[in-house]
Fold:
Amino acid sequence: MAKVLIVFATRTGSTEEIGNIIAEGLRIAGAEVTTRKITEINNESELNGYDGYAFGAPTYHGDMIQGMKTFLFLAEKAELEGKVGAAFGAFGWSGEAPDRIFDTMKNIYKMEMVSGPMRLKSASLGGGLQMAHDYGKEIAAKIGA
Ligand SMILES: Cc1cc2nc3c(=O)[nH]c(=O)nc-3n(C[C@H](O)[C@H](O)[C@H](O)COP(=O)(O)O)c2cc1C
Structure:
């Protein structure tokens, strides 16, 4: 069974909510999913051993939330090359964070990325359910789950 790790940062819970829905989509597609907050990851070795990864952060002041930046430096030391990658996040109007995370996973970690990052406006979280579900399924399909 394909194993996927979802790691997220959040201030008010919206990005966590999106991560949970992506996890549901992945599980429906037959993957085994672990969901963790960035604050629960203390060592890069905790990131090893999965087939796919989705990292998520909200956008504040045109940027990803600080904790995710620190996490991305830690993830640089993990064995992620060639693994399937995806990025997501809640946003209000500009939503830069998922794009930046996606580019880091692609260009620095050399991961096999899905078609693009996934952003959901907090105001449309309900309507975005299907999008997040489908994103989970896309990750699973890319892994071959
Ligand atoms: C002080 C502040 C600054 C924000 N800056 C941005 C921004 O630059 N771009 C954007 O798209 N959303 C911005 N937002 C909206 C958040 O990204 C949005 O509320 C998001 O749902 C928060 O996600 P979270 O619940 O995971 O923390 C901002 C919100 C606050 C409170």
